[in-house]
């Protein structure tokens, strides 16, 4: 019992220190940026007394350590400041934009992991054959071709020329106000409301950017799966399993892949975090109203409160998914569990 409490205390301390480091990083990034947040609010031509008053209201006339303390206290209470661009609290803007990114990234990682893992296993089993070469070429193209170019070409072919999918945006204007917002996840909200036409329209808009992100993550996941599987298939326990007469399918899927899933969990988690951080280029190309587009617009308008708030959310996502992958390690690999 004491060991478990000590382990929980260490785990909590690591999380707290990591998050404190994230807060410190975002705070000092905001201070070294060559943008005065006061001038971004009041404008370049505001009188000096107005500038000083706003600076005092924001606490920017305080010593740096005191400013950091104020920033940490506000961030922990959910106060990320007010956006200059939208004149709304940044936390409110993020609550509205993040579900769109979550929906897009989740569909993307389901495609990427759902296809990338089997393709990586197939390539490892058929090492040196045509299947291996095809998977490696596909992964190389996914790495090499700029994602914004793929997005533009996909829109040109599948939307403009063939008309198979919906265009930019999350849903057509005709359906925009027909779905009541419950979770912010448009597909889920449309299904809960029974708005099946709106659901189909939302899917037609989602399929292209989700497939693009899925291909982008598939390239990385399939390559890493292949590498992990080649390592496992060369181990002695695989030779022993074959000597015992186990079927090749059971050796590959029940033994080799199970051991390869331990490091692969981190690969998938980091890929998902990379998609959740906003997928800035994809959201910009497809005019997807998510966190990436919000961050891009904020940067273009020198809205530092929004930029730092979005950056903090991205860092929090990475921390959370890393912690989740560590917990999954304990489930998948008993050797990582402390006695």
UniProtKB/TrEMBL annotation:
The chain crosses the membrane at residues 7-29, 102-125, 137-160, 202-221, 260-286, 306-329. Residues 98-329 form the ABC transmembrane type-1 domain. PROSITE patterns: ABC_TM1. Its main location: membrane. Keywords: Cell membrane, Membrane, Transmembrane, Transmembrane helix, Transport. CDD domains: TM_PBP2. InterPro entries: BPD_transp_1_N (IPR045621), MetI-like (IPR000515), MetI-like_sf (IPR035906). It is found in: Cell membrane. The keyword Cell membrane applies. It is a multi-pass membrane protein. PANTHER family: D,D-DIPEPTIDE TRANSPORT SYSTEM PERMEASE PROTEIN DDPB-RELATED (PTHR43163:SF8), DIPEPTIDE TRANSPORT SYSTEM PERMEASE PROTEIN DPPB-RELATED (PTHR43163). Belongs to the binding-protein-dependent transport system permease family. This is ABC transporter permease. It comes from Pseudaquabacterium inlustre.
């Amino acid at each position: 019992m004491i060991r478990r409490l000590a382990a929980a205390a260490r785990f909590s301390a690591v999380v707290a220190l990591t998050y404190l480091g994230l807060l410190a990083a975002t705070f000092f990034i905001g201070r070294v940026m060559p943008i005065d947040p006061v001038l971004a609010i009041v404008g370049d031509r505001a009188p000096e007394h107005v500038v000083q008053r706003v600076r005092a209201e924001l606490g920017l006339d305080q010593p740096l350590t005191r400013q950091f303390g104020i920033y940490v206290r506000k961030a922990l209470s959910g106060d990320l400041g007010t956006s200059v661009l939208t004149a709304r609290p940044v936390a409110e803007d993020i609550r509205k934009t993040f579900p769109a990114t979550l929906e897009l990234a989740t569909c993307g990682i389901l495609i990427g992991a759902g296809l990338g893992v089997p393709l990586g296993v197939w390539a490892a089993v058929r090492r040196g054959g045509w299947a291996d070469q095809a998977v490696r070429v596909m992964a190389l193209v996914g790495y090499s071709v700029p994602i914004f170019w793929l997005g533009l070409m996909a829109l040109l072919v599948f939307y403009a020329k063939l008309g198979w999918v919906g265009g930019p945006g999350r849903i057509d204007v005709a359906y925009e106000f027909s779905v009541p917002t419950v979770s912010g996840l448009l597909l889920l909200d449309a299904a809960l409301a029974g708005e099946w036409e709106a659901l189909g329209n939302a899917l037609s808009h989602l399929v292209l950017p989700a497939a693009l992100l899925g291909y982008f993550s598939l390239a990385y996941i399939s390559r890493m799966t292949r590498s992990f599987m080649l390592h496992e298939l060369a181990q002695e326990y695989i030779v022993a399993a074959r000597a015992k007469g186990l079927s090749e399918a059971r050796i590959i899927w029940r033994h080799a892949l199970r051991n390869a899933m331990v490091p692969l969990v981190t690969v998938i988690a980091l890929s998902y975090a990379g998609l959740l951080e906003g997928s800035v280029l994809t959201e910009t190309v497809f005019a997807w109203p998510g966190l990436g587009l919000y961050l891009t617009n904020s940067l273009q308008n020198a809205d530092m409160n929004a930029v730092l708030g979005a950056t903090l959310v991205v860092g929090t996502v990475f921390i959370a998914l890393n912690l989740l992958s560590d917990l999954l390690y304990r489930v998948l690999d008993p050797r990582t569990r402390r006695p």
